[in-house]
Amino acid sequence: MSYVITSPCIEEQAADCLDSCPVDCIEKGEDQYLIDPTICIDCGACEAVCPVDAIFYEEDVPEEETEFIAKAKEFFDV
């Protein structure tokens, strides 16, 4: 499991999460930031600083946002 960045990031892209990540697992995608699920250490630092509440632990991603789990996996070729 890892953290997942969902749709609110598409409009905001504040990037507060980048500075908070101790393992640099967050990258800029085409339209939002994405978390590499193979590098994420599940620390939750990014979730705590997200100004638009776009970051969720994978098991807690709202049902209407689950497509973002696949989007991150596809981006990182997992």
Supply the key terms.
78 residues, 7Fe_ferredoxin, electron transfer activity, 4 iron, 4 sulfur cluster binding, alpha+beta, transport, 4Fe4S_Fe_S_CS, two-stranded antiparallel ribbon, Alpha-Beta Plaits
Describe the protein:
It is built from 4 helices and 4 strands. It has about 80 residues and is an alpha+beta fold. The longest helix has 9 residues, at about 65-75. The mean pLDDT is about 95. InterPro entries: 4Fe4S_Fe-S-bd (IPR017896), 4Fe4S_Fe_S_CS (IPR017900), 7Fe_ferredoxin (IPR000813), RnfB_subfamily (IPR050294). Its cofactor is [3Fe-4S] cluster; [4Fe-4S] cluster. Keywords: 4Fe-4S, Electron transport, Iron, Iron-sulfur, Metal-binding, Transport.
- Model regions low in confidence, pLDDT < 50 over at least 5 residues: none
Biggest sheet, in brief? 2 strands, antiparallel
Shape: globular
Query: What percentage of amino acids are in beta strands?
Result: 15-25%
Rounded mean pLDDT is 96
Number of spatially distinct domains:
1
- Order of strands in the sheet with most strands: 1-4
Protein name: Ferredoxin
Cofactor: [3Fe-4S] cluster; [4Fe-4S] cluster
Domain 4Fe-4S ferredoxin-type: 31-60
InterPro entries: 4Fe4S_Fe-S-bd, 4Fe4S_Fe_S_CS, 7Fe_ferredoxin, RnfB_subfamily
Could you provide a short overview of the structure?
With 78 residues, this protein is α+β, with helices and mostly antiparallel strands. The chain is built from 4 helices and 4 strands, in the order βααββαβα.
